[in-house]
Specification:
With 366 residues, the protein is of the alpha/beta class. The protein has 13 helices and 13 strands. The protein is globular, with a radius of gyration of 20 Å. Bound molecules: N-succinyl phenylglycine. The site of N-succinyl phenylglycine has 14 residues, from loops.
């Protein structure tokens, strides 16, 4: 399809409550949206890069810059979504920026063809079970209240953010209060080193589904050594940016579960490749989240409906993060979200809400 032009739109979305992880606290989500215009249809992509390069090396200003300066000029006049990654491959890294652009092109293409993301990706179910990620809190009672609230809303699994100094005690408290049937997991966002192995092994007592990304992004070998010392399964997130990384991690024994975030891997096509690889190797996957608006959430929910997604994802309802989403809100029903059925993402930004949260907009003609 021929691209007429691309809009880079920045929006500021206030979070319902601060979200604290081992690498920082978010209060407002600064999001870059990519809108691709073609004669047949328009498509949207949401860039998951954060304002600062704390989760990975990407950040939102950098993503906008690489899209306008390098990615768009690398595309041919006529482009097929399936070929975008190949055209962008000479430009190293910047997977979140690439993912946003590829998603927008794919969305336009699917809308033009009347096909949904779920159909295109191979969704096997029409709703997905949802977990929720619970940030680091000041006190354990505050954490217990938060978890209780989420369980009342129907979330089927709880993920606790941990860091040194906030790990064994909060996990113990949640396990004791909510019982052994609660599906519970933890996420360290790379906050530990292999020297912490004995300390992390104390988490084995709590029957966790998994511990996510305990060590640094490039510590694949160290994760394999840690896995040999823990009973709790290791899940990798930040370390896995491609199907090749996933293959390496699996063959090293660095993880037995992978959190797939399409933004981190350069898009939904690479995310599906990781899914296929993991499925062939009996490695469970689940769909992560990066505080997406309804646009990113729609595509994530479609991905999470693929058959290898055997663990509940961080695909929470819109209101977990935003009082007002830019699309029709995703709402939990019996702990599940429905996979959108309409063409492309199946959801649209609501123009008046989008205007209200927009901080800048730039039109780049092809
Ligand atoms: O449900 O969207 C969500 C957030 C889930 O905890 C979550 N995301 O490390 O996985 C993570 C974390 C994150 C959020 C990372 C924002 C980076 C940015």
């Amino acid at each position: 399809m021929k691209i007429t032009g691309v809009e880079l739109r920045r929006i500021a979305m206030p979070l319902v409550a601060p979200f604290r992880t081992s690498f920082g606290t978010e209060t407002t989500r600064d999001v870059l949206l990519v809108r691709v215009v073609t004669p047949e249809a328009e498509g949207w992509g949401e860039c998951v890069a954060m304002s600062q390069p704390l989760y990975s090396s990407e950040y939102v200003d950098g993503a906008a810059e690489v899209i306008r300066r390098f990615l768009l000029p690398a595309l041919p006049d006529e482009v097929d979504a399936q070929a975008v990654a190949r055209h962008l491959a000479p430009i190293k890294g910047h997977r979140m920026a690439k993912a946003a652009l590829e998603t927008a092109i794919l969305d336009a293409q699917l809308r033009a063809n009347g096909e949904s993301f779920g159909q295109f990706l191979g969704a096997a179910v029409d709703r997905v079970p949802c977990g929720v990620s619970v940030g680091i809190m000041d006190t354990v009672p505050q954490l217990l209240d938060a978890v209780e609230g989420y369980l009342e809303e129907g979330y089927v699994r709880i993920k606790l953010k941990i860091e040194p100094g906030w790990d064994v005690e909060p996990v113990r408290a949640v396990r004791e209060r909510f019982g052994e049937d609660l599906l519970l997991q933890v996420d360290a966002n790379a906050a530990y080193t292999l020297a912490d192995a004995r300390h992390l092994a104390r988490l084995d007592a709590f029957g966790l589904l998994l511990i996510e990304q305990p060590l640094a992004n490039d510590d694949l070998v160290q994760h394999a050594q840690l896995a040999a010392q823990l009973q709790t399964p290791i899940c990798l997130d930040e370390s896995i940016e491609s199907a090749e990384h996933a293959a390496a991690a699996i063959s090293l024994g660095a993880c037995s579960i992978i959190n797939i975030k399409p933004g981190r891997t350069g898009g939904y096509l690479e995310a599906r490749r990781i899914h296929d690889l993991c499925r062939a190797h009996g490695v469970a996957v689940w769909c992560g989240g990066m505080l997406e608006t309804g646009l990113g959430r729609a595509a994530n929910v479609a991905l999470a409906a693929l058959p290898g997604f055997t663990l509940p994802g961080d695909t929470s309802a819109s209101r977990r993060y935003y009082a007002t989403d830019i699309t029709e809100p995703f709402e939990l029903a019996e702990g599940h979200l429905s996979v959108p059925k309409g063409p492309g993402l199946g959801v649209e930004p609501i123009p008046s809400i989008l205007e209200e949260v927009t901080t800048s907009s730039e039109w780049i003609p092809a």
